[in-house]
Write a structure and sequence with these properties.
257 residues; alpha/beta; Rossmann fold; globular
């Protein structure tokens, strides 16, 4: 008897999206993307190509409206799901510019977020133990947990905090929206090492990395690299495509005027 293959972890078919305040002008023009468990997909493109729009749309941000196509997660149509439902289901977004939340500590935020994710009220002790374990694995100062979320954090600290959230919340799919933005070489290496630590702990984790540059992909080796230009994926390939783009840029893929 032949076993039925499991559906892809995440599948986008002909996805189109526009700003919520101007739904007649699409920014994404028919995106197709299939991510299987454990795969790393990199999406590269120039400024204004629609990369951050794609990240926000995949997370169900109310700033954008889906004007066509289907988004499936574990085989289920989630196109109409909001960001809170997607987050509880196991989709995580690491922001390009994480927001400060004065008065709410990292520990408090993670306790509330993980309680929502699991659907149970976690005790202070449970979240403390989980945070302590992952902070040790990510080589983070334990005092970090008592600081207000992202308030006064350096760029590198904000991105490491995003990795900590990804570790604690145990998503099935992580979308990293320009995680390398604003990081120097050392900070980039630290953040990438943290992502790889999480992947080593959960090898079934699917990752979509959105980036301008190949340098992040030196540390997070992608299975597939996609080039996004003017809201369309114009080509896909292996890790060597990222190396080529670093050398030649995106001009060869821009539409002819």
């Amino acid at each position: 008897m032949t076993e039925t293959a499991a559906p892809p972890l995440f599948e986008i078919t002909d996805l189109r999206a526009a700003p919520a305040e101007d739904p007649t002008h699409d920014i994404l023009h028919g995106i197709d993307l299939t991510v299987r468990a454990g795969e790393v997909h990199a999406i590269m493109g120039p400024n204004g190509s629609g990369k951050s729009t794609l990240a926000s749309t995949l997370m169900g941000s109310p700033e954008y409206t889906t004007t066509g196509g289907v988004v499936r997660f574990n085989g289920e149509d989630i196109t109409e799901w909001g960001p809170d439902v997607r987050g509880k289901a196991g989709i995580f977004l690491a922001f390009q510019y994480p927001q400060e939340v004065p008065g709410v500590s990292v520990r408090q935020f993670l306790r509330q977020a993980l309680s929502e994710r699991k659907g149970i009220e976690l005790s202070v002790l449970e979240i403390r133990l989980a945070i302590m374990e992952w902070m040790e694995r990510l080589d983070m100062d334990p005092a970090f947990a008592d600081r207000f979320l992202n308030e006064g954090f350096s760029g590198g600290e904000k991105k490491r905090n995003e990795v900590l959230q990804m570790a604690i919340l145990e998503p099935q799919l992580a979308i990293l929206d320009e995680t390398d933005s604003g990081l120097d070489i050392d900070a980039l290496r630290v953040v990438a090492s943290g992502v790889n630590e999480v992947r080593a702990d959960r090898p079934e984790l699917g990752v979509v990395v959105i980036t301008h540059y190949q340098r992040l992909l030196d540390h997070l080796t992608p299975d597939v690299v996609h080039v996004l230009v003017d809201g369309r994926i114009v080509t896909s390939g292996g890790p060597e495509l990222a190396v080529e783009l670093e050398r030649t840029g995106f001009d060869d893929w821009r539409p002819t005027p």
